[in-house]
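Run log // design_07
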Protein backbone atom coordinates (compact mmCIF):
# COMPACT_ATOMS: atom_id res chain seq x y z
CA UNK A 1 0.00 0.00 0.00
CA UNK A 2 1.10 3.55 -0.69
CA UNK A 3 0.98 6.29 1.92
CA UNK A 4 0.81 9.92 0.80
CA UNK A 5 2.16 9.44 -2.73
CA UNK A 6 3.84 12.47 -4.25
CA UNK A 7 2.43 13.43 -7.66
CA UNK A 8 4.52 15.82 -9.76
CA UNK A 9 2.56 18.17 -12.03
CA UNK A 10 3.48 20.97 -14.40
CA UNK A 11 3.99 21.70 -18.07
CA UNK A 12 6.31 19.47 -20.09
CA UNK A 13 9.91 20.76 -20.01
CA UNK A 14 9.22 22.82 -16.89
CA UNK A 15 11.50 20.93 -14.50
CA UNK A 16 9.14 18.16 -13.40
CA UNK A 17 11.77 15.51 -14.19
CA UNK A 18 14.31 17.32 -12.02
CA UNK A 19 11.98 17.45 -9.02
CA UNK A 20 10.95 13.85 -9.54
CA UNK A 21 14.60 12.78 -9.52
CA UNK A 22 15.31 14.78 -6.37
CA UNK A 23 12.56 12.84 -4.60
CA UNK A 24 12.89 9.44 -6.25
CA UNK A 25 16.61 9.21 -5.40
CA UNK A 26 15.79 9.56 -1.71
CA UNK A 27 15.82 6.12 -0.05
CA UNK A 28 12.36 6.68 1.41
CA UNK A 29 10.72 6.57 -2.03
CA UNK A 30 9.96 4.15 -4.84
CA UNK A 31 8.99 4.93 -8.43
CA UNK A 32 8.60 3.55 -11.91
CA UNK A 33 11.76 3.66 -14.05
CA UNK A 34 10.18 6.07 -16.52
CA UNK A 35 7.06 8.20 -16.72
CA UNK A 36 3.90 6.38 -15.72
CA UNK A 37 1.85 6.68 -18.92
CA UNK A 38 2.47 3.00 -19.51
CA UNK A 39 0.00 2.42 -16.66
CA UNK A 40 -2.35 5.40 -16.93
CA UNK A 41 -2.91 5.04 -20.68
CA UNK A 42 -4.58 1.69 -20.17
CA UNK A 43 -7.34 3.46 -18.26
CA UNK A 44 -7.43 7.04 -19.56
CA UNK A 45 -6.20 7.17 -23.14
CA UNK A 46 -7.67 9.92 -25.36
CA UNK A 47 -8.92 7.30 -27.83
CA UNK A 48 -11.38 6.20 -25.12
CA UNK A 49 -13.10 9.60 -25.44
CA UNK A 50 -13.14 9.86 -29.23
CA UNK A 51 -9.79 11.64 -29.20
CA UNK A 52 -11.20 14.74 -27.55
CA UNK A 53 -8.26 15.22 -25.18
CA UNK A 54 -6.31 13.68 -22.32
CA UNK A 55 -8.83 15.05 -19.83
CA UNK A 56 -10.27 12.42 -17.47
CA UNK A 57 -12.04 13.06 -14.18
CA UNK A 58 -12.79 11.18 -11.01
CA UNK A 59 -16.15 10.26 -12.52
CA UNK A 60 -14.34 8.10 -15.07
CA UNK A 61 -12.81 5.84 -12.40
CA UNK A 62 -14.30 2.54 -11.28
CA UNK A 63 -13.45 0.55 -8.17
CA UNK A 64 -11.93 -2.14 -10.38
CA UNK A 65 -9.69 0.43 -12.05
CA UNK A 66 -8.55 1.74 -8.67
CA UNK A 67 -7.57 -1.74 -7.51
CA UNK A 68 -5.78 -2.59 -10.76
CA UNK A 69 -3.86 0.68 -10.99
CA UNK A 70 -2.69 0.40 -7.40
CA UNK A 71 -1.49 -3.15 -8.00
CA UNK A 72 0.36 -2.08 -11.15
CA UNK A 73 2.22 0.63 -9.28
CA UNK A 74 3.03 -1.73 -6.42
CA UNK A 75 4.35 -4.35 -8.85
CA UNK A 76 6.60 -2.06 -10.85
CA UNK A 77 7.77 0.61 -8.40
CA UNK A 78 11.25 0.13 -7.05
CA UNK A 79 13.87 2.22 -5.30
CA UNK A 80 16.15 4.39 -7.40
CA UNK A 81 19.14 2.30 -6.35
CA UNK A 82 17.47 -0.83 -7.71
CA UNK A 83 16.47 0.86 -10.95
CA UNK A 84 20.04 2.04 -11.49
CA UNK A 85 21.19 -1.59 -11.33
CA UNK A 86 18.58 -2.70 -13.83
CA UNK A 87 19.40 0.21 -16.12
CA UNK A 88 22.97 -1.02 -16.32
CA UNK A 89 21.59 -4.30 -17.64
CA UNK A 90 19.57 -2.44 -20.29
CA UNK A 91 16.34 -3.77 -18.83
CA UNK A 92 14.22 -1.06 -20.41
CA UNK A 93 16.16 -0.76 -23.68
CA UNK A 94 14.26 -3.13 -25.94
CA UNK A 95 15.10 -1.46 -29.25
CA UNK A 96 18.85 -1.62 -28.83
CA UNK A 97 19.05 -5.29 -27.80
CA UNK A 98 15.62 -6.86 -28.47
CA UNK A 99 16.53 -10.46 -27.69
CA UNK A 100 18.64 -9.67 -24.65
CA UNK A 101 16.02 -7.25 -23.39
CA UNK A 102 13.37 -9.93 -23.73
CA UNK A 103 15.19 -12.28 -21.38
CA UNK A 104 16.17 -9.51 -18.99
CA UNK A 105 12.59 -8.27 -18.92
CA UNK A 106 11.39 -11.75 -18.00
CA UNK A 107 13.92 -11.74 -15.21
CA UNK A 108 12.55 -8.46 -13.97
CA UNK A 109 8.98 -9.77 -14.10
CA UNK A 110 10.00 -12.71 -11.94
CA UNK A 111 11.78 -10.34 -9.59
CA UNK A 112 8.71 -8.13 -9.28
CA UNK A 113 6.45 -11.12 -8.57
CA UNK A 114 8.80 -12.29 -5.83
CA UNK A 115 8.90 -8.77 -4.47
CA UNK A 116 5.11 -8.63 -4.30
CA UNK A 117 5.10 -11.85 -2.28
CA UNK A 118 7.84 -10.67 0.07
CA UNK A 119 6.45 -7.21 0.75
CA UNK A 120 3.45 -7.24 3.02
CA UNK A 121 0.44 -5.48 1.54
CA UNK A 122 0.21 -3.61 4.83
CA UNK A 123 3.71 -2.22 4.64
CA UNK A 124 3.52 1.49 3.74
CA UNK A 125 5.42 2.63 0.66
CA UNK A 126 6.15 6.17 -0.50
CA UNK A 127 5.60 6.60 -4.21
CA UNK A 128 6.73 9.52 -6.35
CA UNK A 129 4.93 9.64 -9.67
CA UNK A 130 5.17 11.87 -12.73
CA UNK A 131 3.60 12.09 -16.15
CA UNK A 132 3.28 15.10 -18.42
CA UNK A 133 -0.45 14.34 -18.75
CA UNK A 134 -1.11 14.43 -14.99
CA UNK A 135 -2.55 17.98 -14.99
CA UNK A 136 -5.48 16.79 -17.12
CA UNK A 137 -6.46 13.89 -14.85
CA UNK A 138 -5.84 15.15 -11.33
CA UNK A 139 -9.25 14.17 -9.96
CA UNK A 140 -8.85 10.76 -11.65
CA UNK A 141 -5.50 10.29 -9.90
CA UNK A 142 -6.97 11.51 -6.64
CA UNK A 143 -9.58 8.75 -6.71
CA UNK A 144 -6.80 6.19 -7.00
CA UNK A 145 -4.58 7.86 -4.39
CA UNK A 146 -6.92 9.90 -2.15
CA UNK A 147 -4.16 10.93 0.25
CA UNK A 148 -1.78 12.03 -2.51
CA UNK A 149 0.17 15.25 -2.24
CA UNK A 150 0.98 17.33 -5.31
CA UNK A 151 4.04 19.35 -6.23
CA UNK A 152 3.36 21.90 -8.95
CA UNK A 153 6.44 23.05 -10.88
CA UNK A 154 6.29 26.48 -12.47
CA UNK A 155 8.72 27.89 -15.01
CA UNK A 156 8.94 31.22 -16.81
CA UNK A 157 6.63 30.77 -19.80
CA UNK A 158 9.14 32.12 -22.30
CA UNK A 159 11.86 29.71 -21.21
CA UNK A 160 9.41 26.83 -20.94
CA UNK A 161 7.94 27.45 -24.39
CA UNK A 162 11.42 27.79 -25.86
CA UNK A 163 12.24 24.32 -24.55
CA UNK A 164 8.95 22.94 -25.90
CA UNK A 165 9.64 24.38 -29.34
CA UNK A 166 13.04 22.69 -29.31
CA UNK A 167 11.35 19.47 -28.24
CA UNK A 168 8.92 19.59 -31.14
CA UNK A 169 11.91 19.90 -33.47
CA UNK A 170 13.71 16.88 -32.02
CA UNK A 171 13.63 14.09 -34.64
CA UNK A 172 13.43 11.12 -32.26
CA UNK A 173 11.93 12.32 -28.97
CA UNK A 174 8.73 13.44 -27.26
CA UNK A 175 6.21 11.89 -29.66
CA UNK A 176 2.94 11.15 -27.91
CA UNK A 177 0.07 10.22 -30.26
CA UNK A 178 -0.66 9.21 -33.84
CA UNK A 179 -3.86 11.21 -34.18
CA UNK A 180 -6.87 10.30 -36.33
CA UNK A 181 -6.33 13.39 -38.50
CA UNK A 182 -3.45 14.57 -40.64
CA UNK A 183 -1.13 17.16 -39.14
CA UNK A 184 -0.42 20.16 -41.35
CA UNK A 185 1.85 22.13 -39.03
CA UNK A 186 4.10 24.44 -41.08
CA UNK A 187 7.67 23.17 -41.09
CA UNK A 188 6.79 20.03 -39.10
CA UNK A 189 7.48 16.85 -41.07
CA UNK A 190 6.32 14.15 -38.67
CA UNK A 191 3.03 12.25 -38.51
CA UNK A 192 2.76 12.11 -34.72
CA UNK A 193 1.78 14.80 -32.23
CA UNK A 194 4.18 15.73 -29.45
CA UNK A 195 3.76 16.21 -25.72
CA UNK A 196 0.28 16.78 -24.26
CA UNK A 197 -3.13 16.74 -25.96
CA UNK A 198 -5.45 19.39 -24.45
CA UNK A 199 -9.10 19.83 -25.36
CA UNK A 200 -9.35 21.88 -28.55
CA UNK A 201 -6.22 20.45 -30.14
CA UNK A 202 -8.01 19.98 -33.49
CA UNK A 203 -7.99 23.75 -33.91
CA UNK A 204 -4.20 23.70 -33.98
CA UNK A 205 -3.30 20.94 -36.44
CA UNK A 206 -2.32 23.54 -39.05
CA UNK A 207 -1.13 26.38 -36.82
CA UNK A 208 2.44 27.67 -36.45
CA UNK A 209 4.50 25.74 -33.93
CA UNK A 210 4.74 28.60 -31.44
CA UNK A 211 0.92 28.86 -31.29
CA UNK A 212 0.59 25.12 -30.65
CA UNK A 213 3.14 25.22 -27.86
CA UNK A 214 1.55 28.31 -26.26
CA UNK A 215 -1.81 26.53 -26.41
CA UNK A 216 -0.35 23.47 -24.68
CA UNK A 217 1.40 25.52 -22.01
CA UNK A 218 -1.64 27.65 -21.16
CA UNK A 219 -3.90 24.57 -21.07
CA UNK A 220 -1.72 22.85 -18.47
CA UNK A 221 -1.68 25.77 -16.08
CA UNK A 222 -5.39 26.49 -16.51
CA UNK A 223 -6.19 22.85 -15.70
CA UNK A 224 -4.08 22.97 -12.54
CA UNK A 225 -5.52 26.30 -11.43
CA UNK A 226 -9.12 25.17 -11.94
CA UNK A 227 -8.65 21.88 -10.10
CA UNK A 228 -6.82 23.11 -7.04
CA UNK A 229 -9.39 25.72 -6.03
CA UNK A 230 -11.42 22.78 -4.70
CA UNK A 231 -11.35 22.42 -0.88
CA UNK A 232 -10.57 18.71 -1.16
CA UNK A 233 -6.98 19.63 -1.99
CA UNK A 234 -6.41 21.93 0.99
CA UNK A 235 -2.84 21.58 2.30
CA UNK A 236 -2.03 19.00 -0.37
CA UNK A 237 -0.37 21.26 -2.94
CA UNK A 238 3.10 22.77 -2.98
CA UNK A 239 3.91 25.18 -5.82
CA UNK A 240 7.55 25.96 -6.52
CA UNK A 241 9.37 27.80 -9.28
CA UNK A 242 12.06 25.95 -11.16
CA UNK A 243 14.25 29.03 -11.04
CA UNK A 244 14.20 28.99 -7.23
CA UNK A 245 15.96 25.63 -7.17
CA UNK A 246 18.99 27.39 -8.67
CA UNK A 247 18.66 30.84 -7.08
CA UNK A 248 17.68 29.77 -3.55
CA UNK A 249 18.21 25.99 -3.41
CA UNK A 250 18.33 25.56 0.36
CA UNK A 251 15.07 27.40 0.96
CA UNK A 252 13.32 25.57 -1.87
CA UNK A 253 14.62 22.15 -0.91
CA UNK A 254 13.52 22.77 2.68
CA UNK A 255 10.01 23.43 1.36
CA UNK A 256 10.09 20.15 -0.53
CA UNK A 257 11.49 18.23 2.44
CA UNK A 258 8.83 19.61 4.78
CA UNK A 259 6.03 19.01 2.29
CA UNK A 260 6.91 15.38 1.56
CA UNK A 261 7.42 14.84 5.31
CA UNK A 262 10.98 13.60 5.07
CA UNK A 263 13.55 14.92 7.58
CA UNK A 264 16.28 17.24 6.37
CA UNK A 265 19.46 15.17 6.17
CA UNK A 266 22.82 15.14 4.41
CA UNK A 267 20.95 13.96 1.31
CA UNK A 268 19.20 17.33 0.93
CA UNK A 269 22.21 19.28 2.14
CA UNK A 270 24.31 17.86 -0.69
CA UNK A 271 21.63 18.83 -3.21
CA UNK A 272 21.91 22.49 -2.23
CA UNK A 273 25.27 22.62 -4.03
CA UNK A 274 24.89 19.80 -6.57
CA UNK A 275 21.47 19.50 -8.17
CA UNK A 276 21.00 16.59 -10.58
CA UNK A 277 21.58 17.52 -14.21
CA UNK A 278 18.50 16.53 -16.21
CA UNK A 279 18.69 19.02 -19.06
CA UNK A 280 21.12 21.84 -19.69
CA UNK A 281 18.24 24.25 -20.37
CA UNK A 282 17.29 23.99 -16.70
CA UNK A 283 20.60 25.33 -15.43
CA UNK A 284 20.86 28.72 -13.81
CA UNK A 285 22.98 30.09 -16.65
CA UNK A 286 20.20 29.44 -19.16
CA UNK A 287 17.25 31.35 -17.72
CA UNK A 288 17.26 33.60 -20.79
CA UNK A 289 18.23 31.00 -23.34
CA UNK A 290 15.04 31.72 -25.26
CA UNK A 291 16.46 35.10 -26.27
CA UNK A 292 19.19 33.47 -28.36
CA UNK A 293 17.24 30.47 -29.66
CA UNK A 294 13.59 31.15 -30.51
CA UNK A 295 13.11 34.79 -29.56
CA UNK A 296 11.15 35.83 -32.66
CA UNK A 297 8.68 32.96 -32.27
CA UNK A 298 8.20 33.62 -28.57
CA UNK A 299 7.72 37.33 -29.07
CA UNK A 300 4.83 36.53 -31.41
CA UNK A 301 2.95 34.66 -28.67
CA UNK A 302 4.13 36.61 -25.61
CA UNK A 303 0.83 38.50 -25.36
CA UNK A 304 -1.05 35.17 -25.39
CA UNK A 305 0.86 33.79 -22.42
CA UNK A 306 1.21 36.99 -20.37
CA UNK A 307 -2.00 36.59 -18.35
CA UNK A 308 -1.06 33.06 -17.32
CA UNK A 309 2.50 34.12 -16.50
CA UNK A 310 1.17 36.91 -14.28
CA UNK A 311 -1.06 34.48 -12.40
CA UNK A 312 1.98 32.26 -11.86
CA UNK A 313 4.01 35.11 -10.41
CA UNK A 314 6.19 36.01 -13.39
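design_07 sequence
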Amino acid sequence: MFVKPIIIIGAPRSGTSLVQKIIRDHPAFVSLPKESDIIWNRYCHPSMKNWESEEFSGEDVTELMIAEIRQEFIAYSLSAQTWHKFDRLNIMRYKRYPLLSYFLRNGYNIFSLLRKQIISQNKPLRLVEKSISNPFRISFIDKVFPDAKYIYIKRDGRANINSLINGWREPNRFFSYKLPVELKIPGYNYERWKFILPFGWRNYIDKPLEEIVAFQWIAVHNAIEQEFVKPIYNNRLLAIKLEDLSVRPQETLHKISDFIEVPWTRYFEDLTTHLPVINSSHSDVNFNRWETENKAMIMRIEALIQETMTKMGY
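The radius of gyration is 20 Å.
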